[in-house]
Amino acid sequence: MNQSPPTNAVEMQNIVIRFPGVLANDNVNLTLKRGEIHALLGENGAGKSTLMNSLAGLYKPVSGTIKVHGEQVSFNSPKDAIAKGIGMVHQHFMLVPTQTVTENILLGLNEPKFFMNMPKYDQKIRDLQDQFGLRVDPTAKIWQLSVGEQQRVEILKTLYRGANILIMDEPTAVLAPQEIDELMDTMKAMVDQGKSIVFISHKLHEVTTVADRLTVLRRGVATAEGIDIEGITGEKLAELMVGRKVIFSVKKKPQVPGDVVLEVMDVSAENNKGVPALKNLSLSVHQGEILGIAGVAGNGQSELAEVITGLRKCSGSIKINGKEVANQEPRKAILSGVSHIPEDRTGVGSAPNMTITENTIMKNYRDDPIGNRWGINFTAAQSHARDLKEAYEILAPSVRTQARKLSGGNLQKVILAREITTNPALMVAMQPTRGLDVGAIESIQHLLLEQRESGTALLLISEELDELLTLSDRIAVIYEGEIVGIIEAEGADINEIGLMMTGTKRSVA
Amino acid sequence: MKFPYTLKLEKRTDDVPKWLPAATAFGSVIVAFIISGIILKFIGGEPLRVLKFFFSATFGSWGVFSDTLVKATPLIMVGLACAVAFRMKLWNIGAEGQFYMGAFFSSLVVLIPIVPLNSTPKFVVIGLMIVMGMIGGAIWGFIPGYLKAKYQVNEIITTLMLNYIAIYWNNFWIFDKWSDAGFQMTPQFDKVAWLPRLSDLAKEFKAFSGITLHLGIVFGIIAAVIIWWILERSHWGYQIKLIGDNPKAARYAGLNITRNLILVMMLSGALAGLAGMSEISGVVHRLQERISSGYGFTGIIVAWLAKLNPFAVIIVSIVFGALIVAGREIQPSGLAFLLQGIILFMVISSDVLLRYKIYIVRSEKEAA
Asked: Residue B208 falls within a domain, yes or no?
C-alpha cells in the first residue's frame, strides 16, 4: 500500500438505490478526481439528486461502495458525510431569514462555546470570502439578501464546515445571468485551491464552460461516465440525456396573427416595496401570436404578468377582447379567458399538499361535468385528471399523488395542462421552462406553439433569449418598467436585444 | 457492542395507503392505554382492574353509556367547529367563547321571552333557540374573522381574548339581571324550552327511564354529515382546502379569500354556538356559570385527533366523553387527564408513520 494521497476524492461504485416501485440508481459509477469540476447531467427524475444525496449521507444505497479519499465509507446521516468533508448546497436554501449571515453559518455548530463574540466570527467569514471570492456582508440579515447572495451563504456554510468536496444541486437555476458568471468564477477559485466539485445542471452551455468531466444519467442508468468535456457538442449531450436526438430548433409554422386580444395601455404599477415597477407601459398581443418579453430579471416582468391576471393593482387600461379587466378580481380575468403560467410553480401555481386531481381542477371545479351547482363530482374530476396525466405524460404514481411529490417538470405539466384545458383567449406564461430538463423544455415549448396554432394569444415572459427567439413572433424588450423596443423575432439580432436589455438602445418596429 | 438492528426512516415518495391514517390513529389509542397501564403499575395501581372499571363506568350499561354520549354531544359540535376552521388553517381557539354566546343568545328566547312560552309549540321554541344559538356563535366568529380579513389581526389572539369577554358577558346577566334569588344562575327554563330526552319516553318504554341522552346528539350527527359534505364534496369545501394549503394559489385561482375567511369563521362559530344551545337546552336547562367544562378547548384536541375528519370527530368525541365520565368515577381523577395527554401525544407522533417509511435494518458490521 502506498501512502501518497489518492488522486480520486470520491469513488462511487455500482451504486444501487431503490425507492418503492422505482429503481432510482442502477449500478451507477462516479469518480470525482481531486481538484476537478465534475458535471452531473440528466433529466428531472433521472436520479442525479438521489445519487448525490447518497453521497451526502441522506440516503443509503442498497448496494455499492463509496470511497472518500480512498477510504471506504458508510454514511448513516449527513453528519457523517460532513465529517468526511462532503458538503451539499441544496437547490432550496435552508436559512433563517431573520438571522445574520454569520449566525446562519454558525447554526448547528458547537461554536461559539458560550460568549457570542460575533465580530470575531464575522472576520473569520470575511477571510473565507476573500479566499474564494464569495462577497456577502456577514452582518446582513438573510431576508435582506438577493437569491444569489443567499446561495453564497449556503456555499460559505459548507466551506466553514471544512468541506473539500462540494455537491451543488442545480445552483444556477435560481440565478440571474451575471450571478451565474460570478458563481462560475467562485467554482473555479475553489478547485484551484484543491476543492472538488460535483455540479448538477440542466444547462448545457454552463456545463461546457465550467466542467472538466461529466457523467450523464438517464432513468437511473449512467449513459456516460466521467467523459472529458473537450469536444462534446450540445447535441451530443442532449442525446445522452434524453436518449434521442433533440430538435433544438422547435419549428414554428408561419402564421398570420388575427385580431387584437390583449391591449395594455399606459399601465403603471408599483412592486411589493412600493417602488414604481411599470411606467406607462403599452403593448398588444394578437390571436395566434406569441409576444415575447425579454429583459433582465426584475425589470417589471412579474408585475406585468400580475396586472394582466388581476393579481396586482395598476393605473391605465388593460383590455381583453375589448373588455376592461384592469384592477378587477383575478376571477374576472379568468372568466375573460386569461390563463396564467405563474413564475413560481410551487408558491403560486399549485397547492403542495393537495392531489394532482385537486390541482388540475383549480380553475374549472365549478364547470360541468366536474362541478354542479354546489358540489364537485370527484369521480369526474379524477377521470379528468387521469386524462390529463396521460395526454401530458405526467409521471406520478397516481392522480392521488400530492403535488409536492412531483418533480419540477411534471408539476409544470400539471399546471400547463390545467391552463390549456380552459381554452384561453390569452395565455400569460412566465418563465415556463425555467429549471426544467431538456426533454421537458421541449414538450412545454411544443405545447405553447400548439396554443399559438389554435389561435390563442400568448404573452411569453422569459429570461432565456434562445427560447424567446425560437417561439416568439415579436419580441418586446422591457427595461425598468418600460418597453424600450419591439422587434420581429425573425432575423432578430441578439446583440441589439442585449443592448436594449441594458437600456442603451431604443428602437421601435 | 453495537445493537444489531437499527431503525431507518425514509421519506415517503409514493401515496399513503387510504387505510393507514385510521389504522395509526387507532393504534395510537391502544398504545396510549398500554403506556398509561405501565405508569399505573409503576405507581402501585392495578392497571387491569382500572381498565375494566374504566369500561364498565363508561360503556358498561345503557345508563353510563348515555352519560358518555351526553358528554360527547357538545364535543362533537365544538370539534366540528374547530375542524372547519383548521381546514383553512384558521386557528380558531375561541370555540369556548362562541359556545357561551350560543348559550346566551338561545337563552334570550326564554328569558326575554321572544315568544310567549305558554302558547308557542315546543318545536318552534326549540327551533328558534337553535337559530339564535347559531347566530350568537356566528357573531363571535365574525368579529375575529372580519378583523383578520380586513386588518390582518392574528385570529389566535382575538379568538382567545373573546373567550373571556363572552364568559364575563354571560356572568353579568346571570349575576345581576336574571339572577335566580341571588344565585349565579337564571331560573330554570320552562319545559317547553327543554330538548326532548329519552327519559321522556319512560312511560312507554321502561328501559328509557333515567336515560338522560337528549336530542342534541342528533344535531351533532346531522351537523357532522353536513360538514362532511361541505368539506369533501362541495365547491366551498374545495375552496377552504385550497386557501388553507396555499392562499397564493387560491388567489391565483380566482378565489375571494376575504369573504371565505369571514364565512368560515362564522360557520365555525355557529357550530360552537349550537353546542352551547344544546348544552343549556338539553342538560342544564338554565343559563348559569361554568356551563362548559372547557369544551371549547377540548374541541381543539378532538378536531386534531380526528385529523379534521367530521366523522372521526364523532368517534373521538365519544372517547373523550368517556374520559370525562371516567374522570369523575376513577380516583385519582387526574388519571383521565393523563390518558388524554398520552393519547394526544401518541396520535401526533404517529404522523411520522404517514410521512416516513420505517424499516428495521441490520446494522453494518464495524470495520475493525
From this structure: yes
